[in-house]
Specification:
Elements (H helix, E strand, L loop, with lengths): L1 E9 L31 E12 L2 E9 L9 E7 L6 E7 L6 E9 L15 E8 L1 H5 L6 E8 L7 E2 L14 E9 L4 E8 L2 E7 L6 E6 L9 E12 L2 E11 L8 E9 L4 E2 L6 E2 L7 E5 L8 E5 L14 E2 L6 E8 L2 E8 L9 E6 L3 E5 L4 E6 L5 E7 L5 E6 L1
Parallel strand pairs: 1-25, 1-27, 2-21, 24-26
Antiparallel strand pairs: 2-3, 3-4, 4-5, 6-7, 7-8, 8-9, 10-11, 11-12, 12-13, 14-15, 15-16, 16-17, 16-18, 19-20, 20-22, 22-23, 27-28
């Protein structure tokens, strides 16, 4: 039997991020999320270059600073100490003669393998796709290549490598979104790259010279659209290292448009293998795309995604800005009937936000009027299926349920 919990939330819900660079009026704009990251103005999509260093989370993101629809891509930049309160920084990377700055990742080159560090300190190295719009218009298949940039001041400023690109396109139209990580067993870097309908792995000793290792996915998973924004993540489950490969796809979602699938398997430094036969999705909803994990966080795997969908991302009714990021989540694994499933929970840091808490048990109708974030603690042990209806004084409604 499906039961209903009716919760009426009256009034506007505000949460001003105290150490953000925004004026309070920005957070009072219609539709502005109060806890999720959103740019102060203009267009944003994929999270990029997420790296933790010296106590600071650096978030870079696809950004067009001249409008609130997609345009020539830059890397925007924001920093945080807790993944909740953000301060937006100057643009990190601008387009150049090699093209727009598409998605990618950033790492702390602890051992200065790249030789780009200074004064004995490790550099931050960003690895990203450069997209040549002229080459695309001309009908070539080599208009996307991988380049690097480096920072010797903890991500405040960046210098592009003089010999870019470091990985040239062999003739694959969609050749993009490098996610780079250190593989300790063989002392080398691994690049996980989206290459049209599959993932290609490359390795490097210095972040500048790359060698192809293997491919995965031509006959695996969902293929309703181009594969994008991959991430290869090791997760410890009961003292065993299990590898998870995240792959975004657009279109091809079960609900249409954009979504992110994942594969459970093993990686030996050269190839990723998986016996998984079913397609697994990180979300059942429609608003989590291009998500990847933060670099340099140790065993903790923190995931961040673009909270939108290419079906309608350019048409949402905001004025000065468009798009937001998901709430950061911590990834882990569960094993059910011999099969691994990816588990994601909001990060524990969110519990530090001062909120009003209300406890609900059983079948109930309750009115709540509160000017701030609200945490609902639900005891559903007596219920099987349920739905929650959130409604405000304008009679706008949102249904949340579990079956």
């Amino acid at each position: 039997m499906k039961r209903k919990l009716f919760i009426t939330v009256a009034g506007l819900i505000f949460f001003i991020l105290s150490n953000s660079c925004y004026a309070q009026t920005d957070y009072h704009e219609p539709h502005r999320p109060q806890i999720h990251f959103s740019p102060r103005e203009h267009w944003m999509n994929d999270p990029n270059g997420m790296v933790y260093y010296n106590g600071i989370y650096n978030l870079f993101f696809q950004y067009y600073p001249k409008g609130n629809v997609w345009g020539p891509m830059h890397w925007g930049h924001a920093i945080s100490k807790d993944l909740i309160h953000w301060a937006e920084q100057p643009i990190a990377l601008y387009p150049d003669s090699l093209g727009y700055i598409f998605s990618g990742s950033a790492v702390v080159d602890v051992n200065n393998t790249s030789g780009l560090g200074q004064n004995g300190k490790p550099p931050l190295v960003a690895v990203f796709t450069q997209h040549d719009p002229e080459g695309e218009k001309a009908g070539t298949t080599t208009f996307q290549n991988q380049s690097i940039a480096y920072s010797n001041d903890a991500g405040k400023t960046w210098v592009k490598y003089k010999n870019n690109p470091v990985l040239k396109n062999p003739g694959i139209k969609d050749f993009r979104d490098p996610k780079v990580s250190w593989y300790e067993n063989e002392k080398k870097w691994i690049m996980t790259l989206a290459t049209y309908d599959r993932i290609t792995f490359f390795s490097s000793k210095d972040l500048r010279n790359w060698t192809k290792e293997s491919e995965f996915g031509k006959d695996k998973g969902a293929h309703g659209g181009v594969w994008e924004c991959p991430d290869l993540v090791p997760i410890i489950y009961q003292d065993k290292e299990v590898w998870v490969l995240l792959v975004s796809i657009n279109p091809g979602s079960p609900h249409g448009g954009s979504a992110t699938q994942y594969f459970i398997g093993q990686f030996d430094g050269h190839a990723f293998t998986s016996s998984q036969t079913e397609t697994k999705w990180i979300d059942d909803g429609a608003d989590d795309y291009a998500g990847v994990t933060w670099s340099n966080t140790g065993k903790r795997k923190i995931f961040f995604g673009w909270m939108s969908n290419w079906q309608y991302g350019t048409k949402v009714p905001t004025e000065k800005w468009r798009s937001a990021m998901t709430i950061p989540r911590e990834l882990s694994l569960e094993k059910i009937n011999g099969n691994y499933f990816l588990r994601s929970l909001p990060i524990t840091e969110l519990s530090a936000i001062s909120v009003k808490q209300t406890n609900l048990t059983g079948e109930i109708q309750k009115d709540i009027s509160y000017n701030g974030p609200i945490k609902l603690q639900l005891d559903l042990t007596l219920l099987d299926d349920f739905t929650i209806e959130l409604k405000n004084i304008k009679n706008e409604r949102c249904m949340i349920g579990y079956e």
